[in-house]
Amino acid sequence: MCCEDVSTDGKWCYIVFWVVCKPATRWELLKKRLVQACPSCSSASGISYYRSELQSPKPPDVFLIKLCCVDRKGLLHDVTQVLSSLELNIQKVKVSTTPDGTVVDLFFITDTRELLHTKNRQEETYKALEDVMQDAVISFNIEKVGPEITACCQASPYLPSAITDDIFNFEMSNDLPSVSLTSNNVCVTMDNSLSPAHTLVQIVCQDHKGLLYDIMRTLKDYNIQISYGRFYIKQGRKCEIDLFIMQSDGKKIVDPSKQTALLSRLKMELLQPLRVTVVSRGPDTELLVANPVELSSKGRPLVFYDITLALKMLNTCIFSAEIGRHMIRDREWEVYRILLDEGASSSIPRRKVEEEVWKRLMGWE
What we know:
Helices cover 30% and strands 32% of the residues. The chain is α+β, with helices and mostly antiparallel strands. It has 3 domains: 59-153, ACT domain (Alpha-Beta Plaits, 2-Layer Sandwich); 183-271, Alpha-Beta Plaits; 273-364, ACT domain (Alpha-Beta Plaits, 2-Layer Sandwich), CATH 3.30.70.260. Strands 6-3-5-4-13-14-12-11 form an 8-stranded antiparallel beta sheet, sandwiched between helices. Strands 2-1-9-10-8-7 form a 6-stranded antiparallel beta sheet, covered by helices on one side. The chain is globular and about 70 Å long.
C-alpha cells in the first residue's frame, strides 16, 4: 500500500487505498474478502463499537486434516502454502517427526468458503496437497470435529514462566532488540488543539507488513473511532499517519492517563507487533513467536505461513510445531513453538534465525 484516505460521517465510511500492483495478487479474492468484511447497509444506522458483551457470530465448523508423509526440507511450508491458497485457515497445528523420518501433521482448520464438508472440496484439497508433495504422502484424512475434540486439543491457558520470560525479557529490562529486529524510530504524538471535536494522533514509523492492521486493532481494543485518517508512505519505507479520533462517547481524549496509555500501547505495537526469539532447550533449539490476539478473538493472519517460509529459505527443518493461545500477563497471545531440527539448527546462528523470521513477518525480505 502506498497511501490511504479514510473518513466517516458517523454512519457511512469512505476508504481509498492506493496500492502497488504485484503479479501474484488475487484481485477478485481480495474484493470478495473486503466486501465480506464490510457491514451490510442495514447495519449502518449508527456507529457500532466493539464490546465484549455483544453476542458473537456462530463459529465456523472446524475440520481436522491428518497428514502422514515422508519428511523433507520445506515440507511444512509447502503444506501451509497449499492450505492458504485454498482459503483454509489454520486454527491450530501439531506437527511431529518420528525417528524414521515420517512426519505426522494435525491441522485444525476452518474453510473460508464453508464447503469442506463436501466431497468435491475434500478431493480438491487432497489433489492440491498431492501435487506439491507427489509421492511423499503416506496417508491423508479430513474429518469434521466437534467442540469436545477441539477442547481436548487446546493448550494450557498459561505458559511456564521460563517461556514467557524468553519471549518478553526485553520488556522487563527496558531494552529493545537491535535495530534489525524492530520497526526503528517510532514517533507517536497526540494533539487536541487542531480540531474542535477530535484528537489528532500523528505517527511516524517504518512501514511493515500489517502496519495498518496493527494500528487499527489497537484502536479497536481501546474502543476508539477514527473519523478521518491519512496514511502516506515515502521513499525508504518511512510512513506518516494522521488520525483524527474520538472516544465511544464522541468526545476527545483529554484525560492524561488515557492519553499516556494509548500512546504507549501504540508505540509498543509498532516497535514490536510480534515477539520473536530463539532459545536453547538443553540439546534442542526452539523458535518462539508470539502474536497478540484481539479482544474479538482474532489473530494476525498468515503468521505460520511466514514462519515456515523463513525456515525454508534458511534450509532448516522443523522437528515439531505447535500453535496455542495463552494468557500472558493481562493479554491473550497466540504462541508458536517450533522445535528446529537438531542438525540443521546447530549450523545456523540463533540471531540469524531470529532476523530472518522477523524480516519475513514484517515483509522486509
